[in-house]
């Protein structure tokens, strides 16, 4: 063996010894999290020196371009490649700050900063890690043997056990390629699930992820960390008093109910209630508010401290507000507002405002709970909120007498009445009225996503005024004597925390409706006195409706329409009925008085999905669908699209699955021309007809 051959053999032995020691599970996890990063509007910042700098740039090129499969470009920057910044920072601040200053300039909470170093001791990378932690970014490192300072300083590290720097760098290149492969796989899996997760097969295939823009409003806005985000609630706080008594007679001298006996309970109200409800779900919460220097203010501070809510007090130059509800027989008889005049806010001056700024800049999510008493109109606080809205998702729960949301607000959450007052609209509380109210709010304050709450009917999410809304029905029957007080606060707080946890707005609204429904069913504000039995979601409503009983689908639609009812229709293949389909149909049925499913015939399905489909013949698919309590009738169509069936049925509401959220829907124009409306309901992630078929084939 020659010397050259011996050297090459030793070299390969070192490499083959180091590769099996790599933490492949962590590498795969990083790739999957990069896929989420790309869909969430976040970015990857990478830095390294020398050979590591070249590999960092190789990684960002794979993300902005592509690795193996087509997908949307990812936002990724190599900090060393900013040559003018590198030379200017090095000249003015020293080379140790060359990456740290760029991190402070570019990184936002939830971004990922990946630092690459063979030794793990480069001072400029250590300073960059410190800067990333300061701004709330997630920090990763690729280094040589552990332990080393960089691996200790970051959140997560993949280290290479090898003595030669060249071996370390080659292993880093393998990690980069494995990470990109894992990311491609995660993107493809999510696209497959979204395309075929639930509901109808598309009349025309949705645009591929490589060529279509991201659906409007569907940015993931949250941190990639696994810990629970810090929520900051900003708004007007007051003390709520509930007097629970009995009504046994009417006054003799005038037609007034006489409330006797009973007990009085006190609890935080307004923004303070929103903060307490979020803290009870296990999230760290800070409340930015203004309290008076009085007994009521002290009582509120005590209640908030018991709920583990930190308070930043801007100071109220007057008395803390008190609201009293007189309740009997499970209903509110009267409400008393003892402080209708709002005193000035800001007694504590610049010191309190600086404290508010510190917590808002570090927040994972922000909820502005406006009760129209002056907090959200404070000029200094509004400037801070505007800055905070650029850094993390900000949810604004408005009040008709309150302030206008600040720029960059992510979601506003008016209820039906508030939306009509904000937009100066009249109308009822039908779904169409509420959708029009949401559109009017969007035009007034947009572009901003409008999550309009519909009391016991759930919520509507409007991401864009020109696209169909997402309709989320309630999932829990509250009962006739349920106390809905605080349900709006619960909804807004849960929405803000879900956005901060990384959910899409559509996912977060669906989760918030379910959580708020469960809160009301558990007794509303009375649930504050009792911890929840467990953390499991509550079951939904039964949506059984009358069967068609031999009537044809068209006759059924005509009969329902004749008696003033609402006809709902949905379409699809439903080749292998699964839980996602069932949930879609349940939600659709809750939107009206009958649900008719337009089902692709065998020939139609074959043209749409290929010669291997259908798996189940149309007659059997129709029989299974009709057996569902949510389905009143099925009509089978043989064309490529359900347009002829829609013309015959003339549904008031045409329902599509959540995979169409933010997209143009082909049937929308036809449905609108017939006087109906197209809506989208949430899909159940993880269910796909295609994946079920593939799983069955491979077993």
Give a description of the structure.
The chain has 699 residues and is an alpha/beta fold. β17 (459-462) and β18 (470-472) form a beta hairpin. Residues 191-226 and 531-551 have low confidence and may be disordered.
Shape: flat
Number of helices: 23
Question: Would you report the number of β strands?
Answer: 23
Regions with little confidence, pLDDT below 50 for 5+ residues: 191-226, 531-551
Supply Rg. Answer: 29 Å
Q: Which structural class fits the helix and strand makeup? A: alpha/beta
Major sheet details? 9 strands, mixed
Could you give a short description of this structure?
The protein contains 23 helices and 23 strands. It is an alpha/beta fold. The strands form four sheets. Strands 10-9-6-13-14-15-16-17-18 form a nine-stranded mixed beta sheet, with helices on both faces. A five-stranded parallel beta sheet has the order 2-1-3-4-5. A five-stranded parallel beta sheet has the order 21-20-19-22-23, with helices on both faces.
Furnish the topology, listing elements before pairings.
Blueprint: H1 3-18, H2 24-39, E1 44-48, H3 51-64, E2 76-78, H4 83-93, H5 100-106, E3 112-117, H6 123-135, E4 138-143, H7 149-153, E5 156-159, H8 165-196, E6 231-235, E7 237-250, E8 257-270, H9 271-280, E9 285-289, H10 295-306, E10 309-313, E11 322-328, E12 331-337, H11 349-361, E13 365-369, H12 379-391, E14 393-397, E15 411-412, H13 416-423, H14 431-445, E16 449-453, E17 459-462, E18 470-472, H15 487-500, H16 505-521, H17 553-562, E19 567-572, H18 579-589, E20 594-600, H19 602-609, H20 618-626, E21 633-637, H21 643-649, E22 653-656, H22 668-673, E23 677-680, H23 689-698
Parallel strand pairs: 1-2, 1-3, 3-4, 4-5, 6-9, 6-13, 7-11, 9-10, 13-14, 14-15, 15-16, 19-20, 19-22, 20-21, 22-23
Antiparallel strand pairs: 7-8, 11-12, 16-17, 17-18
Helix pairs in contact: 1-8, 2-8, 3-8, 5-6, 9-15, 11-12, 13-14, 15-16
């Amino acid at each position: 063996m020659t010397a050259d051959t011996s050297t090459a053999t030793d070299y390969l032995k070192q490499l083959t010894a180091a590769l099996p020691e790599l933490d492949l599970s962590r590498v795969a996890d990083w790739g999957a999290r990069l896929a989420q990063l790309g869909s969430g509007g976040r970015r990857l910042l990478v830095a390294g020196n020398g050979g590591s700098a070249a590999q960092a740039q190789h990684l960002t090129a794979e993300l902005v371009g592509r690795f193996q499969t087509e997908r949307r470009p990812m936002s990724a920057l190599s900090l060393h490649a900013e040559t003018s910044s590198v030379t200017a920072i090095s000249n003015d601040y020293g080379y140790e700050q060359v990456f740290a200053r760029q991190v402070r300039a570019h990184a936002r909470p939830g971004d990922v900063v990946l630092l690459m170093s063979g030794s793990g001791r480069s001072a400029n990378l250590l300073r960059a890690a410190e800067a990333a932690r300061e701004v709330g970014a997630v920090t990763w490192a690729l280094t040589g043997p552990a332990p080393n300072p960089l691996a200790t300083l970051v959140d997560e590290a993949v280290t290479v056990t090898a003595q030669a720097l060249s071996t370390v760098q080659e292993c880093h290149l393998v990690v980069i390629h494995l990470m990109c492969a894992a990311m491609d796989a995660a993107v493809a899996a999510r696209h497959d699930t979204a395309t075929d997760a639930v509901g109808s097969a598309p009349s025309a295939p949705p645009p591929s992820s490589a060529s279509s823009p991201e659906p409007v409003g569907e940015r993931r806005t949250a941190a990639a960390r696994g810990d629970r985000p810090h929520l900051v609630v900003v708004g007007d706080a007051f003390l709520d008093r509930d007097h629970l008594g009995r009504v046994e007679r009417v006054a003799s001298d005038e037609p007034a109910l006489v409330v006797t006996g009973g007990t009085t309970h006190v609890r935080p109200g307004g923004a303070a209630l929103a903060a307490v409800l979020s803290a009870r779900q296990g999230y760290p919460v800070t409340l930015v508010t203004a309290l008076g220097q009085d007994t009521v203010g002290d009582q509120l501070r005590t209640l908030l401290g018991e709920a583990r809510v930190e308070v930043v007090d801007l100071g109220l130059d007057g008395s803390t507000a008190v609201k009293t509800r007189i309740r009997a027989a499970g209903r509110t008889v009267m409400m008393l507002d003892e402080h209708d005049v709002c005193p000035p806010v800001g007694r504590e001056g610049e010191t309190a405002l600086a404290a508010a700024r510190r917590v808002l800049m570090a927040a994972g999510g922000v909820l502005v709970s406006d009760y129209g008493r002056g907090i959200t109109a404070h000029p200094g606080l509004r400037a801070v909120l505007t800055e905070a809205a650029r850094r993390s998702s900000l949810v604004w729960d408005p009040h008709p007498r309150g302030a206008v949301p600040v720029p960059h607000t992510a979601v506003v959450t008016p209820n039906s009445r508030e939306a009509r007052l904000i937009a100066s609209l009249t109308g009822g509380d039908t779904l169409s009225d509420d959708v029009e109210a949401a559109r009017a709010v969007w035009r007034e304050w947009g572009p901003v996503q409008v999550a309009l709450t519909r009391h016991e009917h759930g919520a509507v999410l409007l991401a864009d005024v020109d696209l169909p809304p997402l309709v989320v029905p309630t999932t829990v029957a509250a009962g006739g004597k349920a106390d809905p007080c605080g349900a709006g606060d619960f909804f807004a707080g849960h929405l803000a925390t879900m956005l901060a946890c990384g959910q899409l707005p559509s996912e977060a609204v669906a989760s918030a409706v379910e959580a708020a429904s469960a809160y009301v069913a558990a007794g509303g504000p009375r649930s504050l006195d009792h911890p929840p039995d467990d953390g499991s979601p509550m079951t939904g409503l039964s949506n059984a409706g009358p069967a068609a009983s031999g009537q044809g689908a068209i006759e059924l639609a005509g009969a329902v329409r004749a008696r003033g009812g609402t006809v709902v229709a949905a379409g699809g293949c439903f080749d292998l009925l699964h839980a996602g389909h069932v949930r879609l149909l349940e939600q659709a049925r809750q939107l009206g008085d009958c649900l008719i499913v337009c089902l692709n015939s065998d020939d139609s399905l074959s043209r749409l999905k290929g010669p291997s489909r259908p798996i189940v013949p149309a007659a059997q698919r129709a029989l299974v669908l009709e057996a569902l309590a949510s389905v009143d009738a099925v009509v089978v169509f043989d064309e490529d699209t359900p347009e002829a069936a829609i013309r015959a049925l003339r549904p008031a509401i045409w329902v599509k699955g959540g995979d169409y959220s933010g997209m143009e829907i082909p049937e929308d124009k036809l449905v609108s021309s017939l006087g109906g409306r197209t809506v989208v309901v949430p899909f159940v992630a993880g269910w796909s007809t295609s994946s079920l078929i593939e799983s069955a084939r491979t077993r």
